[in-house]
Structures are given as C-alpha cells and as structure tokens.
TrEMBL record:
Keywords: Cell cycle, Cell division, Cytoplasm, Hydrolase, Meiosis, Mitosis, Nucleus, Phosphoprotein, Protein phosphatase. GO terms for cellular component: cytoplasm; cytoskeleton; nuclear lumen. This is protein-tyrosine-phosphatase. It comes from the Eukaryota. Its EC number is 3.1.3.48. GO terms for molecular function: protein tyrosine phosphatase activity. The lineage of its organism: Eukaryota, Sar, Stramenopiles, Oomycota, Saprolegniomycetes. Belongs to the protein-tyrosine phosphatase family. Non-receptor class CDC14 subfamily. Residues 470-517 are annotated as: Disordered. Residues 502-517 have a biased composition (Pro residues). Residues 265-421 form the Tyrosine-protein phosphatase domain. It comes from Achlya hypogyna (Oomycete). One of its GO terms (biological process) is regulation of exit from mitosis.
Length: 517
C-alpha cells in the first residue's frame, strides 16, 4: 500500500488528532519527526528549514476544518506533509520525538532529539552516540556489542548514583536518526536485562509502540531479513538462561582486546565456542591488512582448554601446527557465502559434542559459515530460535550470519530444536531435500541453469562478475566501475580492518570474557 493510500485509509478523526498534536510540536521536535521520514525516504533532502514552515502552514490550515473537510483536504497535501503524517502513525505517537519516555519509574528516561537538550535543574542528560560506536562492515549498523553494554553500565551507573544523591532524574538521549535510535534503545534494553534483571518483554515494553529500522546484515545489498530490537533482546534472554554470560565474571577488557584484528579477531560466543577469523601460514601486515599464524592462537587456546579447531574454509595454513600442540583439528569445508549441507552440520555438531573442551571455529572472516554452524549447535542444545541465535551471535560477534544464511537458519530451526530428543537427518539428507525440498532459500543467487550459486567466489569461477555498490549508491545498483569483488570472507576481513578504530598497543591478555566450560 502506498503512503498516500495509507493516509487515505486513516479515519478523519485520527487524522485530525495527529494534525493537532503535530502543530503543537516545537521546531526541534518537528525536525525529529522529519528524521523518521528520512529513514523511509532517504532520497528526500529533509533537513532544510523551508520544509518546517511548509509543513506547519499545511497543518495549521487543516486544524479548523471539519472532519468531512479534512477527509477531502488530505488528497491535496504535498508529499512531504503526507510523509510526516505517516511517520507519526508509524511511530505510534509523536511523544517519542521530543518528549521523554519513562524507562525506570521516576529515575531513568529515554528521548530522541534533533539537538542536545539544554541543561535543566534536577535533570542529568547524557548520550553515547559518539562514545560507543558500531564499527560496520558494510550496511550493517548494529546492534552495539556486549562489550558496549558493559561500558554503558559504567557510564549510566555513575549518572544514576549522582542522581540519587541530588534527587534528580537521568535522561538518556540519542539523535533522531533511526539507526542511532535503534542502537540506543537496544543498548538500554540489554543493560536493563543484565544489570536490572528485567526480562526481554519488560525491557522492551516502553518502546513496543514505536518504530525502529531493523538491523541489517553485513552486506552491501538490500537485506530482506528483518532482525528487530526485540529479537536481539530475546537472544540475550536465552543467552542469560543458558549461563553464557554473567555480569560478575564477564571481562570487558578481555572482550575488547581480542575483538581487535591485531590481537586475534576472536570472540567467545558461549561457554563452548570461540568464533575467530581464519589463521594464515605466517604473520603479515601489508598496508594495514593483518594476518596471523596458528602460533598466535595456540597459547591462548591451551590456556582456555580449547581441544578442537574447526576449519570451514579453504586451507590457508597447515593444520599439523595445531595438532602438534595437542589441539585436534577438523576440516569441514563448504563454499564461502553458502548454506551448510546437512552432512556438514551433522559432523560439526557431533564433533563438538564429543570433544571434552572448548571448540574454536573459523572460516575466512569467522562470521557467516562460522556463525551458522555454531548457531545450529545452540538451537539444538539451548533451544534458541533462529532469530534469538542471530541476535545473540551479533551481540557477541557483530556481523555474524550473513545474507541467505539468515533464512537458512529459519528453515532448519525446527529440525535443530527437535534434534535434542532425536537424531539429525542422515548425511545423505541434504538441506535441498530434508529442509527446502529442492527449493532455494530466498535471496540465493541463481545462474542461467538449475544450479544454485551462493558463493561470491563460485560466481567468479563461473565467469559471473558481481559488482558491489559503492558508497552513496542505491541498494541493488552496481557500482560504476567494472571491478569484481573478492570472495565474501576476504571482503569482510578487509572491511573490518579498514573500518575499525586504530590499532591498540599490545598488552597482556586478561581472563576470558564469557564463561568457558
């Protein structure tokens, strides 16, 4: 349904109420409402002050009209005014754009504002928009990771303690940008679950009538899989119940040390699993692109009782280097960017169940294939849903599970969750027969023939040029140059190293962040 059609279907009484509320907004609050419009209409240049005057005049003209006149008048409104009205309906109310939402009764509030609020007696304002930053791979923008949640606790705990002494209220605010609002509210919800012992439903309740953009996967293409704030909170709730994270034992310094590429690019995602970027034969640092050998990881793996390394990508190092150190090694290769055959999933889960210690899993970047296989284990053993496990994995290791792998997780969710009391399908029962019954998952690439090409690397081998959109281009449109991209894993590694903050000096490794078994 088009925006105009949605507006025409709105009852005249509801439209009149919206008009009255919007015309009473300040210019700053109306700017905030324009921010919501910008999320849905990025091509419109909405930050010109002329629009403010135009919209206010349109709506002021509607205020004295009768309901029947309003019903007819709406057909003649300019597009920008229609967009503002529909943004108000999408938001559930206008209150979230200029008025504070109570989160902890009488103590803590959240608001989205176009500009930092002015100081006010009895109120402590703070924001983390430029302090806790998501370092993206592609078009992904969040959620902020679990390390950010613990840093946020340090910040907010200080403000709440000061407010308690001075009988003040704390207002946590973000900009009106949709991505910033989504990250702020998700961060606040995660904090409340970990440090205020709220469940996911209670933590999200103050915001359930509001509208937020869904989180995007780590690609430069349009994402058809909508992962919501609530999905992420549900994933955290499952992780807490599974004893994956504990506020008393989590070491945020450890987490933030090892997430850096130069320190290993590894993340504990449960008591059982480490996800990490694939090692190479030797250390190198060419133009800031770092590769690390197995020997970089072996001391840490031995210290943390890692008894198995699983490699899901092409061989870039000799596995005997891990084996010689007393760490078992298993190769379960399948093409970059694709969905795992059931035979691979079965072998992965069985090997992980049999090894007595922790399992370190990698592909090229340690995101797509790695997250998918670990997620399958979690769905079986901890009864995560697909959305919960994707949300949880992205909290622990941002960028995990990519493209068609998201839909694949949905497809095999019931098989994995039921496997706790039954065997997985036989090795011969591939995902094409046991899961999708021959049909490709949504979003998979197809060639002219019947074969499914899901790997960017395979597409290159098949002679198909894949063009990645450049910055500022619309989704789905090829970049203007003819350059083909590298396989997905190589591309993600390069993106992480180019988008990450400057390298930090080496330091002694602290304890492990999550709770290894």
């Amino acid at each position: 349904m088009s925006t105009v059609a949605r507006l025409e279907s709105l009852p005249a009484s509801s439209l009149q109420a919206l008009v009255q509320r919007i015309t009473n907004l300040s210019s700053d609050a109306l700017m905030g409402l324009l921010g919501v419009v910008a999320e849905h209409e990025p091509s419109l240049h909405l930050w010109q002050i002329d629009f403010i005057d135009e919209i206010q005049l349109d709506l002021q003209a509607m205020q004295p009209l009768t309901l029947s006149a309003i019903a007819n008048y709406r057909h003649f409104l300019p597009c920008i005014t229609i967009q503002v009205l529909m943004a108000a309906t999408r938001s559930g109310s206008v209150a979230d754009l200029g008025q504070a939402i109570e989160f902890l009764p009488g103590k803590l509030f959240y608001m989205a504002v176009a500009a930092p609020p002015k100081a006010k007696d009895g109120t402590i304002f703070f924001s983390i928009d430029t302090q806790l930053v998501y370092w993206n791979y592609c078009l992904d923008f969040g959620p902020l990771n679990i390390g950010h949640v613990f840093r946020f606790n340090d910040i907010i705990a200080e403000h709440l303690a000061h407010a308690a002494k001075s009988n003040a209220k704390v207002v946590f605010y973000s900009s009106t940008n949709g991505q910033r609002r989504a990250n702020a509210v998700c961060l606040l919800g995660c904090w409340a679950m970990l440090f205020q012992k709220l469940d996911a439903a209670t933590a999200y309740a103050p915001f359930e009538k509001l509208s937020f953009p869904p989180f995007h996967d780590a690609t430069d293409f349009e994402c058809t899989y909508d992962l919501s704030i609530k999905n992420v909170l549900d994933g955290l709730e499952r992780g807490i119940k599974s004893n994956y994270v504990d506020v008393h034992s989590f070491d945020v310094d450890e987490y933030q040390h090892y997430e850096k590429v130069e320190n290993g690019d590894l993340s504990w995602v449960s008591r059982k699993f480490i996800a990490f970027a694939g090692p190479h034969n030797k250390y190198s640092n060419k133009n800031g692109q770092i590769t690390l050998p197995p020997e970089h990881y072996i001391p840490y793996f031995k210290q943390k009782n890692v008894t198995l390394v699983v490699r899901l990508n092409d061989k870039c190092y000799d596995k005997s280097r891990f084996v010689a150190a007393g760490i078992d090694h298993l190769d379960l290769y399948y093409p970059d960017g694709t969905n795992a055959p059931m035979s691979i999933i079965k072998q992965f889960i069985e090997a992980s169940e049999k090894t007595p210690g922790a399992v370190a899993v990698h592909c090229k970047a340690g995101l797509g294939r790695t997250g998918t296989c670990i997620g399958c284990y979690m769905m079986k053993h901890e009864q995560f849903t697909a959305r919960e496990v994707i949300g949880w994995l992205r909290l622990c290791r941002p960028g995990s599970v990519i493209g068609p792998q998201q839909d694949f997780m949905e497809e095999i969710q019931d098989i994995m969750r039921n496997a706790i009391n039954a065997s997985l399908p036989s090795e011969e029962a591939d995902d094409a027969t046991a899961i999708a019954k021959g049909a490709p998952s949504p979003g998979r690439f197809r060639s002219e023939g019947s074969s499914i090409l899901t790997s960017l690397g395979d597409m290159r081998k098949a002679g198909i040029k894949v063009l990645m959109p450049g910055k500022g281009l619309s989704l789905g449109r090829p970049a203007p140059n003819k350059k083909t991209i590298n396989p997905q894993g190589d591309y993600l590694i390069a993106q992480k190293q180019s988008n990450s903050p400057p390298q930090s000096p080496a330091r002694s490794p602290p304890k492990s962040p999550l709770r290894p078994r």
